[in-house]
Amino acid sequence: MPANRPSLVRPLILLLFAILVCGTVWVVGVIALGTPSRAVEEIGPPAPGLDPFQSSLLAVYLLARQDALDTPAGLPGESLEVEITPGQSASAVFADLEAAGVVADPILLRAYMRYLGLDRTIEAGAYTLRGDMTLRQIAETLQSARPPAVVLTIPEGWRREEIAGALADSGLAVAPEDFLAATESHPTTYTFAALLPDPATVEGFLFPDTYHLDPDATASDIMLTMLDNFEARVGPDLRAAFESHGLNLVEAVTLASIVEREAVHPDERPLIASVFFNRLAAGMRLEADPTVQYAVGRQPDGGWWKRSLTLDDLALDSPYNTYVYPGLPPGPIANPGLASLQAVAAPADSPFFYFRTVCDSSGRHVFAETFEEHLANACP
Fold first, then answer.
1. 216 shares a domain with 272
2. Where does a domain end: 171, 203, 233?
3. Whether residue 372 sits in one domain with residue 267
4. What would the pLDDT profile of 318-369 be if each residue is shown by its tens digit?
5. Which of 321, 285, 327 has its CA nearest to residue 306?
6. Inside any domain, residue 133
7. Do 344 and 220 fall into the same domain?
8. Residue 172 reports pLDDT greater than 60
9. How many domains does the chain have?
């Protein structure tokens, strides 16, 4: 057994040496940079329960790096939407911030938050963090999450009243009537504003999409978010294509809204658009049922799109009734999605002037060149 004793000497010496070095660093740091009271004054009081040795080491380190605490923590042009889940470790949060370029020195951030105890009080929830924030600002921000975003999905082909109704069930504190009032405004900053019908609403430009909204968003905030999305998604190429077919932006959205309400299957959209283009070119009325449904309005069951139209409905005196009035209606009848807008921008090249639903409940349509063919395609 005595032969094994020398093997324990070296580890013991290394351990004693490490303790001596750490103790020396501690003592030298405290002497060089002042007592812990300086750290309390310039960094803040250490977290309760932090042992004095660790507190002093962190204080020495933070005082030496104090300038870095008050300069941009990362790349000024970078930002990150952070979703911190309950139980997520501080290390994982810091790693995400470093990977996104928001924090260049996660070690310093961790030391700062550890010293103050802020690493234990990171709140689960959503944050927006930017590279031009200081480490102090990021640490403070991580203590108070904003409420989770409200997810609102607007399907293609809804009219604004349907969107307003969905707000009541979404968790947003916006009354349907407030949203309707907001969407009757005239947003002059948008490219389509001068072309809107009178009285002006933004029907047709409330872009269908899934939105992540601030729980405190107002009716105007929601409307503007949707309009901004429209402006971003309907770009110069689409608008130039509309003009090549002789349509201004509001006319193109109006036609796309009719296509949206008529089409069930995506592949039929360009063909349906071609029928309407052909009818317009020939001076024929569009005779589109959705325009009558829009004019008829809300039904006793609460729905907005009457399923079975009567002869009286088809004779309704409304500028939106394309059985009565030629050309396009004054404005959109719904809010079309991108696919229907693209169908108007690039309609199929077809000889068809008519279409009707196939009698098999598939939602597909059969197309015809003549009225006689159209009659022959009727269900038995």
1. no
2. 233
3. yes
4. 999 999 999 999 999 999 999 999 999 999 999 999 999 998 888 899 999 9
5. 321
6. yes
7. no
8. yes
9. 3
DSSP labels, 166-225: HHTTTT----HHHHHHHTTS--TTSTTGGG--SS---TT-S--SEEEE-TT--HHHHHHH
355 plus 227 within the same structural domain: no
Tell whether 256 and 378 lie within a shared domain.
yes
Residue 365 bridge partners (DSSP): 357
Cα separation values, 69 from 45, 312, 314, 359, 375, Å: 16, 74, 71, 71, 78
Domain annotation covers residue 23: no
More confident residue, 212 or 252: 252
Q: Which two tokens stand for residue 54?
A: 């660790």
* pLDDT recorded at residue 267: 94
Determine the structural domain holding residue 95 and report its residue range: 30-146
Does the CA dihedral 344-347-352-358 come out positive or negative? Answer: negative
Residue 13: strand, helix, or coil: helix
The count of other CB atoms within 10 Å of the CB of residue 356 is 14
> What does pTM read for this prediction?
0.70
- The residue among 186, 202, 233 that closes a domain is 233
Q: At what angle do helices 90-99 and 106-116 cross, to 10 degrees?
A: 150
> Which residues pair with residue 187 across a beta bridge?
none
Q: State mean pLDDT over 219-245.
A: 95
3-state SS string over 113-150? HHHHCHHHCCCCEEEEEECCCEHHHHHHHCCCCECCCE
Instruction: Give me the pLDDT at residue 169, please.
Output: 83
* Per-residue pLDDT reduced to its tens digit, 239-289: 999 999 999 999 999 999 999 999 999 999 999 999 999 999 999 999 999
Inside any domain, residue 132: yes
